[in-house]
Fold each of these.
Amino acid sequence: MAVLITGIAGFIGMQTAARLLERGETVIGIDNFNNYYVVALKEARIAKLKAIDNGRLAIHRLDLGDETALAGALAGSEFDRIVHLAAQAGVRYSLDNPAAYVRSNLAGHLNILEIARHRGVRHLVYASSSSVYGANKMMPFRVEDRVDHPISLYAATKRADELMSEAYAHLFRVPQTGLRFFTVYGPWGRPDMALWKFTANILAGKPIDVYNHGDMSRDFTYIDDIVDGVIRSLDHPPVDNGREKAGGFTTPHRIYNIGNNRPEPLMELIRTIESACDRKADLNFLPMQDGDVHATYADIDAIASELGYAPKTPISVGIPAFVDWFRAHSL
């Protein structure tokens, strides 16, 4: 049986698909190749997948919000697991184009839930986000914490996805795992993320914008560690035994944090990029942006104890790996 991956041309989607192909899985991928960031990067990711494919990869170009197109594309395909990573990303973009988040993150998630329900899939793993913790002050963020104070529409849609998933787990016993990702970075990453912007500008001799005057920290998580957590989750669906699971549900539905369990100050990130680029940054200090949070910090006890997840990559290793990749690719 195959694995359906949505958002396969995305950062995490491509790397997850590569790991599954390398271990002999058949992968069916969906992506709409939208222009939120440069489409050439998405096409390059797919080209990388095709280079390792041995007749076990199929790609469908469509919008998950289009229920009819989605059903038609998958009508002749068989799969028993889903990794749902497609979403309209970005906290700041949600201030400018909220409708894109409703279509992709809400309607798209619902359409995948319906497919999981009617196909009787063994496991649906879906992407949530650390953004759901919003205005929470207690650190580290735990999956047991209340998450009803979102400070961006993006965060609100991701929390809504979790609640819709719980409803389907309750009503239709669809086994699901929600993954709250914490600031994912690494080769093949996204141009809208701080690491990419900082690296590009430092190498080009341009200033970089540093928000909240540099007083911020993030739980930066290297892509290889993220993919390890996704695969471990996929391979171990939650059991429908009525017992409480991570996230507080008693249905076959659980939620995990996937982070590095080690928040890094923003200024330390910048110093590490400077070292990897062998250049000093020209810093443009600015106030905090709307929708941003001061710090993120993942409590990963649940996924560590239950699945053996253990992030291995500090920024001292991950940042130089990204900079080396960035220098080698002109996208």
Note: The longest helix spans residues 98-119.
Amino acid sequence: MTHQSLHEIAQSLRSGAIRASSLAAASNAAYDASEPRLNAYKHWAGAQMTQQAEAVDVLLDAGSDTGPLMGIPVSVKDLYGVPNMPVFAGTDAALPARWQAAGPVVQAVMGQLGMVCGKTHTVEFAYGGMGTNAHWGAPVNPWSAMGAPRAPGGSSAGAGVSLAQGTALVALGTDTAGSVRVPAALTGQCALQTSRGRWSREGIVPLSPSLDSPGILCRTVEDLAYAFGAIDRAKPMAAQGTPVSGLRIGIIGNTVWDGADASIAQSTRDALGMLERKGAVLADITLPHLETALEIFGLGGLAAVELRSFMEMNFPERIARLDPMVRARVETADQVTAIEYLRRASVLAGAALDAVRVFDEVDVLITPTVAISAPPLADLVEPGAYRQANMMTLRNTAFVNLFGWCALSMPSGLDHNGIPVGLQMIAPARHEEALLGMALGVEAVIGRAPELLGRAPLAPHVA
């Protein structure tokens, strides 16, 4: 699909230089060329997209403009309700039809005539960071070597793959502990996790109402800013990024580098060095209460109890049929007392109030998004190996949700396995506009993902 930015594509659609039907045809061609190998989608809506594209072209020819996402192919994580498209939430059977009702985020896309191309695979009930699914199989990371499939990251597993595949230009996901940032990092995309409560969770199957946040994935930070502004509509996004010169960057020193792959650490430090040479002010900081938050996360946090409660009230018969990697954690929720759940919530709330003071000294925090390379899928079959990889994959992202902040991930290079490395930028709650502005400035220095990384080895060759 075209390498133009979303803003350029939108302009070209309105000038007639690009047709929505051409974008739909390219999306369908990319799907046909790679989907059996990559397995990004639970439900493909190519025929409906083609019909919608023809209607969009007619409207554009008549001078009608329904919004910034008009005619843009958008993939949607299979937790979101989309009318007339089944919702499985990663489970072994479709949920009742009432879950197909669109909430505000999907309504924002569809109301602008953004073209929903399909529903992407998710970890069952979004409870996992590797992207695996015992019922439907894991999407394959497009950066895998041929014949050696690696994890795509999760839980929005198919979202990042859909962008690398070329079937979508925007992907909707959700993030409870890193579920848009992790797949973006491991597949070479960019992702924004919105602050808790910034966007409505209505119309989305929940994992943890206390922590869930809708999020978006795009090919570049520039595209993220465009898509965020289109969906949020609270205030227009500035076209220019925040200058890097004088930007106060806090480099978290405790925990986030422990056990990090050497090539990932080096890629992150190389990017920080580039920023420093452009005038950014780097400061090593210790993030208060990080270890306390991660200890609670390791015990199941709030999510295990909240998912168990949701299932008991809605789908008790499905608990025994859960993916074994999910069921093991859901079943442990029986051992958590109400007192313990409330203790965890109280400790996290207090920790967040104290930890946010770090932003009095810095404008943004930076860490590697994921400290390890995407593991081969074959290495995740054994439960112990899965648990270890899952915790390491989510460690650097989970505390952002636990503290209620916002964050994004953008590529900084490739690791020793040829897998993309994510650079995570973190800001306080409700600072998405400022975060995107800073990230635009960073992207201008370290490079945009398509030029920085090149083409994924398993991505289709489609004109």
Note: The radius of gyration is 20 Å.
Amino acid sequence: MDIAALVTWVITALGGFYMLGTWLARGGARGGNSHLPVPVVFGHFALAAIGLVVWIAYLVADTDALAWIAFVLLVPVALLGFVMLARWIPVYRARAAAGAQGGGAAQDGPAERNFPVAVVLAHGLLAVVTVVLVLLSALGVGGN
């Protein structure tokens, strides 16, 4: 279960890197070009990256405290992710409505308008799986 958590965490991170790169390339970090607050985006990224490093340290050291620290770090990561999802949904709906009316190129509007729905959904689903696997590992369910 420990390695499964690592695999899902890394795949989740890849999707997150893709969205972060898209967001930055479309000017998301510049004022007024995003509905996602810069501190939320980078806080989500930083805590997730730190948590992943702690998880790898747990895998190497097999110290239960590190598993719990990684899980505790995932709690604000998940909360920040839900904040960003809640702010992205209206942007997606506006893009879908503009597309249905035949107007508004994908480049127009907030930077996060360019996130592929499949990547957002896969990132969120894998994030939930990762949190569950990390919690189960920290609890000692399924052995090491």
Note: Residues 2-139 form one domain.
